[in-house]
Specification:
Blueprint lengths: L1 H4 L1 H5 L1 E6 L2 E3 L11 E5 L9 H4 L3 H35 L16
Length: 106
């Protein structure tokens, strides 16, 4: 339900209250139910949520968020490895252009 309202709400959802009662996230809501989504800024989607999500749209948004996080981690790791190689290259004996910087290749 939270992803139907807004993807950020779904990404930070930690629980739900239906008609004033705490319910598990996999609870089926009915017409006329009052739903309160409880969220936390520290909460992020997890791969296990794909089994809880009922709609393909919610599953797609969870997958999209997971892929984005994996991409950001991969880019950070790649930059770190590239900078390490640049430093190693610049410090080798006989290096002609020791002023090579990873900033020049962004």
């Amino acid at each position: 339900f939270a992803y139907r309202v807004h993807s950020d709400l779904g990404n930070h959802c930690i629980g739900a209250r239906v008609n004033g009662r705490m319910v598990p996230l996999k609870h089926q809501v009915n017409n006329g139910d009052t739903v309160e989504v409880i969220q936390s800024p520290n909460q992020t989607p997890h791969h296990d949520w794909l089994g809880i999500a009922r709609t393909s749209k919610a599953q797609a948004r969870i997958r999209q968020w997971i892929k984005q996080q994996q991409r950001e981690k991969s880019v950070a790791l790649g930059r770190e490895l590239l900078e390490k190689e640049f430093r190693r290259y610049a410090n080798r004996p006989g290096a002609r252009n020791a002023a090579v910087s990873p900033k020049e290749y962004q």
